[in-house]
């Protein structure tokens, strides 16, 4: 797979390029490693494209997860509530 467009949310790309260039390099390597053709497994049920093979988001996510975990990346979540009261 290759990168064709980039959206830098809250200047995240710029931060990586200036402060964590090695992380951006790892992310690019993972993206290049994903086999997009292998992720074309979803069968369309739309009236105009019935039976056509499409890219499966689940397969893409699974591929990215496996490749990132192989590079010792792990998921981290922080849950919090936003309320009007302090």
The count of β-strands is: 2
Q: How many angstroms does the end-to-end distance come to?
A: 46 Å
Rg measurement, Å = 18 Å
Q: What quaternary form is this?
A: single chain
Q: Topology as H/E string?
A: HHEEH
Helix-strand makeup class: mainly alpha
Strand order of the largest sheet: 1-2
Task: Give a description of the structure.
- Helix content is 41%, strand content 5%.
- By secondary structure, the chain is mainly alpha-helical.
- The chain has a domain at 9-58.
- The protein has a two-stranded antiparallel sheet.
- The longest helix has 14 residues, at 57-70.
- The model has no long low-confidence stretch (mean pLDDT 94).
Topology (elements, then pairings):
Blueprint: H1 12-19, H2 21-33, E1 42-43, E2 53-54, H3 57-70
Antiparallel strand pairs: 1-2
Helix pairs in contact: 1-2
Could you give a quick summary of the protein structure above?
This protein has 86 residues and is mostly helical. The protein is built from three helices and two strands.
Q: What tags apply to this protein structure?
A:
86 residues, mainly alpha, extended
